[in-house]
Amino acid sequence: xxxxxxxxxxxxxxxxxxxxGWVERVRDHGKISFFDLHDCTGTMQCVGENLPKLSMLSxxxxxxxxxKRPEKMVNPKLETGKVELSVESVMVIAKAEELPFDFGxxxxxxxxxxxxxxxxxxxxxxxxxNIFKVxxxxxxxxxxxxxxxxxxxxxxxxxxASSTEGGAEVFKVKYYESDAFLIQSPQLYKQxxxxxxxxxxxxxxAYRSEPSxxxxxxxxxxxxxxxxGFVKFEELLDALEFVGKETLEYVGKNCKSILEDYGVPEIxxxxxxxxxxxxxxxxxIFDRTGVDHTKEPDLMPEDEREICRWAADxxxxxxxxxxxxxxxKRAFYTMPDPKDPEYSLSxxxxxxxxxILSGSQRxxxxxxxxxxxxxxxxxxxxxxxxxxxxxxxxxxxxxxxFGLERITMQxxxxxxxxxxxxxxxxxxxxxxxxxx
Length: 436
Ligand code: AMO
Fold this sequence. Notes:
Layout: E1 16-29, E2 32-39, E3 42-49, E4 59-68, E5 83-94, H1 112-117, H2 119-122, H3 126-148, E6 152-153, E7 159-160, E8 172-175, E9 178-182, H4 187-192, H5 194-197, E10 199-207, E11 220-229, H6 233-254, H7 256-262, E12 275-277, H8 278-289, H9 301-315, E13 319-323, E14 336-337, E15 340-344, E16 346-351, E17 354-361, H10 366-375, H11 384-390, E18 397-403, H12 404-412, E19 425-426, E20 429-430, E21 432-433
Parallel strand pairs: 3-5, 6-10, 12-13
Antiparallel strand pairs: 1-2, 1-4, 2-3, 4-5, 7-9, 8-9, 10-11, 11-18, 13-16, 14-15, 16-17, 17-18, 19-20, 20-21
Bound molecules: aspartyl-adenosine-5'-monophosphate.
GO molecular function: aspartate-tRNA ligase activity; ATP binding; RNA binding
Keywords: Aminoacyl-tRNA synthetase, ATP-binding, Cytoplasm, Ligase, Nucleotide-binding, Protein biosynthesis
Organism: Candidatus Woesebacteria bacterium RIFCSPHIGHO2_01_FULL_40_22
């Protein structure tokens, strides 16, 4: 008999079928037992008499009849909640060993280290698996929005001859007889693609040897980037807000039931995203809280939270764009503001209290770039391929980058970014804790 997918059973009431999937939630009521079976299309309640003992998460094949459930037993939460499978026989294809914790609840009640130490099991919990359905929708929303801006998708290397974002947070790797670096961001390559396609987007892994453990930083993360040629600063702000809003709206529309299940508020993106310079934001924070960070060279995490509260209160917006960070605090390729070079034509997008994006107008003049690289104590020789692109018709350009795990974390109100990464890497962990 051919396998039927669970979703297809809705049209097969009264028919005998063979289903295949994994066992969840076994309930024994004397002679009668129930279990849920799930495959890639849905979940089916199975019921039968004198069934063999089934362990949670075993892979099985089940033969039986699709019946309508009695009215009182209908489960409105399930797409297949009106039917059930009357089991005739079960064949265990791959038995699951006894699980190290209780898996049968609506929510896994585990500490983060356990959640990660048993990742291949915990990812199979429906609530956790749904985090990555949301993540898939984030990428899809981003792709659609970027395409509609006329960007071409490109795929760039993650091994590089130079480090992009400066600072010490770079992983050096042995590369045959030489040294190389893992990219801290796809920055240099996306810029090199401007003269090729004018507008590009990409989804790339990025690596940072973050020296501390925080709830918002990973050593390996996924960035979603756009880079656009022939643009002015305001056009870049329009573009990033467009992509940000479209992405979030796409998730809101396509992940409704997951967001409800997580009990998170609906995403609020108004017509326009409020825009402030960093100094204006600090002033507002000072006026609202009395905390004076107006001389600080950056927004601190608590400032980001407070300015997002302001955006929600005053503009009913979950997003706020902050511009003009100090030039010294940004990467070398950032263009200083010609009107006040101490500050730069840079921006961050904050979403519900956390930075989910940053970017800038770039320095697109070859000689200026060489000078900045030298001024920052770096060797232009290490940027030879990058600089080559600037010698032959690089237009004014700029772009931005979203952190995929950050957005996912913020949409679902997860407490730690590690929950938004399938197999998170940090200072203390590659799959398992490093010092074990
Ligand atoms: P930035 O360093 O701000 O900018 O990174 C862009 C976005 O990526 C996310 N992000 C991270 N997420 C998890 N763990 C990390 N360690 C981490 N670091 C960054 C954040 C951040 O907003 N090249 C520039 C972008 C540009 O100018 O286009 C860059 O990488 O959400």
